[in-house]
Amino acid sequence: MARFAGSDLASTDMLDEELPQGSNSQGLDIRSTPREEMELFPLDSFAYEYAGRDIWVEFEIPEFTAICPFSDFPDFAIIRLKYVPNRLCIELKSLKLYINSFREIKVFHEHVINIILEDFVQACDPRRIEMEGDFHVRGNIKTVIRASYNKRSADGDV
């Protein structure tokens, strides 16, 4: 096993172990909202009448807000999402209500982008999706999180 510099911690294969718990040297009461308690508005979809024709649909959501699990202060971001529909498209009003339902949710930047990606894929099964969470500067640090998904065909093609 490899050792981390300046530490007696050993590196391990993360897939064989439980998820790491992280550290909390500040002694803060860190409480993320559990996924099953999030009560997010459901994403609706409608039939894409041109299935098989690739188009990019792009959304910019400039007023995203969630709560920081460390500080309980709001985190603000611009969410950029673009996708290629497969057979369904996301209905815009439900997307707005879904995104706004994060306002009272305590969630880390890295997690919220993955949650949105997973819910979007589940709702409309896109061929491709790329998204970015561009979080506003807080404490002199700017965070940008990017995630993507590519649907694989039965042949293994994207």
What this model shows, in words?
This protein has helices at 92-100, 109-124; strands at residues 45-47, 57-67, 74-84, 88-90, 128-138, 141-150. With 158 residues, the chain is α+β, with helices and mostly antiparallel strands. The protein has a domain at 55-158: 2-Layer Sandwich (GTP Cyclohydrolase I, domain 2), CATH 3.30.1130.10. Strands 2-3-5-6 form a 4-stranded antiparallel sheet, covered by helices on one side. A two-stranded antiparallel ribbon has the order 1-4. It has 2 helices and 6 strands.
β-sheet strand percentage: 25-35%
In the CATH hierarchy, what is the class of the domain at 55-158? Alpha Beta
Helix content: 10-25%
Strand neighbour order, sheet with most strands: 2-3-5-6
CATH architecture of the domain at 55-158: 2-Layer Sandwich
SSE sequence, one letter per element: EEEEHHEE
Question: What's a quick, concise take on this entry?
Answer:
With 158 residues, the protein is of the alpha+beta class. The protein has helices spanning 92-100, 109-124; strands at residues 45-47, 57-67, 74-84, 88-90, 128-138, 141-150. The strands form 2 sheets. The chain has a 4-stranded antiparallel beta sheet, covered by helices on one side. A two-stranded antiparallel sheet has the order 1-4.
Defining traits:
single chain; 158 residues; alpha+beta; GTP Cyclohydrolase I, domain 2; 4-stranded antiparallel beta sheet; two-stranded antiparallel ribbon; 2 helices; 6 strands; 16% helix; elongated; disordered N terminus
